Amino acid sequence: MSRLLLVSVAALASFARAQTAPASAAGKSSSDDVITLSPFTVNTDAEQDGYRVDSTTTGAKINTPLNELPITINVLNREFLADMKVYKVQDASAYVAGVTNANRNENDTETYTIRGFQSSSPLRNGIAFNSITDVSNIERVEVAKGPAAILYGVVEPGGVVNYTTKRPMTRYAGTIEQTIGSYSLYRTDFDFNVPLNKSKTLLFRVPGTYSDRETAQKYEESKTFFLNPVLTWRATPSTLVTFDYSYKRETGNFARGGIIGALQPNDNFPQAVSIFDVPGFGEDYGTSFPGGHLDNRHSYGEVRIEQTLGRHITLQGIFSQAQFHFDDVSAFLNTFRKEEAADVYRPTSATQLTSQFLPFEERYRTKSRYYEINALLRYDLGNIHTTTLVGVSGSRMVESEGAFYITPGPFPYTVDPSQPDAVRFAAIPTDTSDFIKWFDYSLGLATPGYGRANTFLTEQIGALDDKLHLMGGIRRQSYADVKVTKTLPQIGAIYEVVDGLSVYATYSGTSKSNGLRASDGAVRPLETSEGYDFGLKLDLFDSKLTGSIAYFDILKTNVQIANPGGFIDQTTGEILPGADNVLIAGEAESKGFEVDLQARPIKGLQLGLGYAHTDAKNTKDTNALLVGSTFPGVVKDALVLFGKYRFEGGPLAKLAIGAGMQFNFGAVHYDAITNPFYGIATEGTTKNIHLFVNYPVKVAQRRIVLGLAVNNLTDDRYFVRSLILSEPRQVLFSAALEF
Q1: Are the CB atoms for 621 and 631 separated by under 8 Å?
Q2: Rounded to whole angstroms, how far apart are CA atoms 535 and 548?
Q3: Quick one: pLDDT at residue 165?
Q4: How many CB atoms lie within 10 A of CB 207?
Q5: Which residue from 167, 318, 472, 525 lies 20 to 30 Å from 207 (Cα-Cα)?
Q6: Which helix (H) or strand (E) holds 510?
């Protein structure tokens, strides 16, 4: 793959010197547009109309109108992210009904649950991504619900999240925004765009941020510096080269996520619950403690070369590398009831509890690479318009080394929650020089990674005066760990029945590796899935009402389930001979419906509604108790509402007020049976209400946007995933200088 990429890049560069073809059939670009040579990117300036957008690259890997794609795609653009004061990408996903944040790992990568299934790592500008995220450089958060495997490889059938980052523009522009808020939040965001020559063939943009904040949980704090310089070079009228680099460093005390308050089951208490009734306990404390520390460093580099050949062909080559170093001193913990609390369902005093802290240090470093070469062909056959995308992609984990180190003293360290902090944490060791290696989870150097040398082919066809759009494709996906190759299909169609109203249907298949059997190294069967989507898309009343309504049904087979007979040596992580830790015998199904609508009934007013009903459950398991059980972290009924009104005239002209609201109905469980430590649940209805006011003023001929926002207005505290609590009420003041 590396040789193929180098040869292709050299060929593209050589060919570029001889090319004089016009820029692209994708359309003209004004002096204020993002430089676009091919349809692999969207023009964010031109496509944005308030919160509403017309096209995306996520659903087809090329710029395609939303109403020509037979799948559901939700787009949260820059204006929306700014209004809702979204500083973490997982907070953005909460505004898409049916999507929840499942995890944030040490690599600062988010994992999402979409349509009941946990998605794999998100995408960045349409390619596999397992590195840093920061909202300061994100232009859009796009969620493709349903089939995406033929384009992006090993992804779950529920869908995938794609981050579209900021790209250089041909005009001078800059913004500096200062935000202060609750819990000692100080955040400075900046974004500078500069053409580097008069011909504007060299463009440079650098967004970034510096933040310093604490949290509602004691001893958790972080300082973050992030920078994302991007350079685009129009080498010839038909050649564009983009250099993209990101760097992030986070220090402080890592908010790993656990809270003291998840009771482990024991003889007197068969099911784990959370504790909110114990004063000075519960949500006030996490896994951080005095003396803990974090040093988390990431870097990500990417080069893209795009070459247009005449009017019909565009070539693209991509190479990226991500690496990070992680050093964290925090703790694992368990909380138990004491014997004297045996008859108390929910302890009301910390004296009835005991906690076991396991201070540890985790050191981890990785380096991964991604390659892709593709070709886009556009041509017409009479009144039939065809678009063909063919490509090869690959990825490789170059380095993966990590280990846990623990104190040689008591294992674990017991603390009395009823004592003051000075006593409770006094004896916890923080000098890591005396720590010993607990276990190593390195993959070693130059270990083959996931999914290499994959090929894909997609076809889009527009016919019947562009009322009918067909999309189909296949992908030959290899699984390096088990040396198995699988063909993944997809086919879909969307038809405009009447002006502004279309019907669509899609079928897709996905698969992923289950790895090798632990006992003898035999290949386990691949997990497979089949998914069906049916729905409507709307663009009515001169685009005053847009959106989609969808029904989906997904069936997965060969699902991994815990093996009751398997045995793992917890001190080494090794599976003992003759036992396997999982069985490939499960089935799971998720079905439901979704409604996503946006309306602009009058000038200045924007409204949005999202609703998702997700019925996701195990349908086959060796444990009869698990058959019919719901999936962890799945919200069965979710409702999202948002709106914004900007005054168009009078004394309040340009004042904008708005709100975003999220409601989850029913219980949300976190694997209470198979993993008791995460066996907690959020009961009843939970909500998060965000209010904001923005007002632009002129100072010395400069535009300054003043903002006031309140997150979690009602101060609801509930679990948003495993042991992660929702953020408490937070008040934010901001001032953004534009020039």
Answers
A1: no
A2: 7
A3: 92
A4: 24
A5: 318
A6: strand 501-512
Tokens standing for residue 608: 């949005």
Q: Between vectors from CA 408 to CA 407 and to CA 413, what angle results, nearest 5°? A: 60
Q: What is the pTM of this model?
A: 0.86
| Alpha carbon separation from 8 to 16, 40, 299, 363 (Å, rounded) | 12, 18, 25, 38
Helices (H) and strands (E) in the chain, counts: 6, 44
Question: Could you tell me where the beta strands, DSSP code E, fall in 600-673?
Answer: 605-620, 637-646, 656-665, 668-669
Neighbour tally for 295: CB within 10 Å: 15
d(CA 277, CA 228): 44
* CA-closest candidate to residue 515, choices 525, 501, 528, 505: 525
Structure tokens at 223: 């300082």
The pLDDT, as a whole number, for residue 56 is: 85
Query: Distances from the Cα of 125 to the Cαs of 166, 167, 304, 307, 373, in angstroms?
Result: 10, 10, 11, 18, 15
Coil/strand/helix, residue 347: coil
Alpha helices in 403-479 (DSSP H): 421-424
d(CA 610, CA 347): 39
CA distance between the termini of the chain: 44
* Total length of the chain: 739
Count of C-beta atoms within a 10 Å radius of residue 530:
15
632, 670 Cβ separation under 8 angstroms: yes
CA distance 554 to 510: 10
Q: Which of 22, 21, 242, 247 is nearest to 134 (CA)?
A: 247
Could you tell me if 463 and 387 are in contact, meaning their C-beta atoms sit under 8 angstroms apart? no
| CA distance readout (Å), 376 to 26, 38, 40, 708 | 12, 9, 9, 46
Q: Report the relative pairing of strands 159-165 and 123-124 from DSSP bridges.
A: parallel
- The enclosing H or E element of 451 equals none
Q: What is the DSSP letter of 650?
A: S
pLDDT reported for residue 120 = 67
Is 140 within 8 Å of 77 (Cβ atoms)?
A: yes
Which residues, 6+ apart, have CB-to-CB distance to 126 below 8 Å? 40, 57, 58, 61, 151, 152, 162
Ranges assigned E (strand) in 199-339: 202-214, 221-227, 230-236, 239-253, 293-309, 313-337
Q: Which residue has the tokens 């793992």?
A: 568
- Indicate the residue type of 510: T
Exposed / middle / buried, residue 296 (Cβ in 10 Å: 0-12, 13-18, 19+)? buried
Q: Is the alpha carbon torsion for 25, 27, 30, 32 positive or negative?
A: negative
Q: What gap in Å lies between CA 550 and CA 99, rounded to an integer?
A: 15
How many Å apart are CA 248 and CA 254, to the nearest integer? 15
Strand 230-236 with 221-227, pairing = unpaired
User: Where on the phi/psi map is residue 583: left (φ > 0), alpha (ψ -120 to 50), or beta?
Assistant: beta
Q: How far apart, in Å, are the Cα atoms of 399 and each of 110, 121, 246, 318?
A: 21, 18, 19, 20
In this predicted structure, what is the pLDDT of residue 16? 36
Per-residue pLDDT at 416: 83
CA 608 to chain CA centroid, nearest Å = 21
Angle at CA of residue 473, ends 472 and 479, nearest 5°: 150
- Interatomic CA distance for residues 377 and 241, integer angstroms: 20
DSSP 279-308: TTSGGG-BS--TT-EEEEEEEEEEEEEEEE
Element (H, E) at 152: helix 149-152
pLDDT mean for each 10 residues of the chain (739 residues): 35 35 35 57 64 84 87 91 87 88 64 82 81 84 82 78 91 95 94 94 96 87 94 93 94 71 58 62 76 89 93 93 89 76 69 82 88 92 91 84 85 82 83 85 53 79 92 85 84 94 93 77 86 94 94 90 62 59 81 95 94 91 77 87 93 93 82 47 81 93 94 86 78 95
| Residue 544 Ramachandran class (φ > 0 left, ψ -120 to 50 alpha, else beta) | alpha
